[in-house]
Design a protein that fits this description.
This protein is of the alpha+beta class. The chain has 7 helices and 8 strands.
């Protein structure tokens, strides 16, 4: 893999535009490279993720399009869901034995009043990128959620938790695809999450959806989840104050994990959490 991945460090994406905040995704498990894949290829994680984001219309490349005064400069650049920041296959701050296979960092664009954080497309893009170079067997997915970038007061009554408008996307899942998972929601140094855990759990698992069914589980130790592959100063770490849910997810996919992550983010904001939240889902 390219050398730039070995020295990549998290950092805040520079931007002059209002944003929701930095999102970081880490995929854990096993990556079996395709036989034809060249580890030294110029098509590294950053380039592939950038290309996929651009192709799908998710990349906000307005800052780059507006630079300079060349005749070829685009007269109009459409907004997107995020600005690209960094990515890699490995990370120097990943815990030994954590089985990190790829990571991605973006700056999420400011949210529309009735839309969730774009975790579903973000993880979809991360999975597509990783599967481009090999066969992926996921064991855990971790996302840093910029809950502080969600303005609950701007949410209309019909979309206080916007993802709850879309659980029917998973309505046609094979019932045999349901999988047992453990979910860790951590606020780092902020002690707010344990204080609102019962209320937060009820918001995350309402009775009128079947994407995730679970309940608080105090028997699962935090050590069962991989530590984040970035410095504590990057968010509000270390992960000291959190809650764990055990339950079933409609399917083991980045799509379902992304839906649940967006639900957690809005639910946390609704309960008064105003700091980044580390969200991790692992197969039980």
């Amino acid at each position: 893999m390219p050398e730039q991945d070995a020295t990549a460090q998290p950092g805040i994406a520079p931007t002059a535009r209002p944003t929701a905040g930095t999102m970081f995704a880490a995929l854990y498990g096993e990556l079996i490279p395709h036989a034809w894949h060249d580890p030294a290829s110029e098509h590294d994680a950053y380039q592939l993720f950038h290309q996929r984001s651009l192709t799908m219309g998710w990349l906000d490349d307005r800052p780059g399009a507006e630079e300079g005064n060349s005749p070829g400069r685009r007269a109009f650049a459409a907004p997107g869901l995020w600005a690209m920041n960094d990515a890699g296959w490995s990370h120097p701050l990943a815990a030994p034995g954590s089985n990190l296979i790829s990571w991605f960092q973006i700056e999420a664009s400011a949210l529309a009043d009735d839309r969730p954080l774009p975790v579903q497309p973000f993880l979809r893009c991360a999975q597509d990128t990783t599967e481009r170079v090999g066969t992926v067997r996921l064991t855990a997915v971790q996302v840093l959620l910029p809950v502080q970038g969600i303005d609950v007061s701007a949410r209309p009554p019909y979309a206080m938790v916007p993802s709850m408008r879309t659980p029917d996307w998973f309505g046609e899942c094979d019932p045999r695809a349901r999988v047992s998972v453990k979910v860790r929601i951590d606020g780092g140094l902020d002690p707010s999450i344990p204080a609102v855990a019962p209320r937060l759990a009820r918001l995350i698992v309402p009775p009128d959806q079947n994407v995730f069914a679970g309940e608080l589980d105090e028997l699962v130790p935090p050590e069962d989840f991989p530590p984040p592959p970035f410095d504590d100063r990057f968010w509000n770490g270390p992960p000291l104050h959190g809650m764990t849910l055990s339950g079933e997810l409609a399917e083991w996919s980045c799509d379902a994990v992304g839906w649940l992550a967006a639900t957690v983010a809005d639910s946390a904001a609704y309960t008064g959490i105003r700091t980044p939240v580390l969200f991790t889902v692992a197969r039980a």
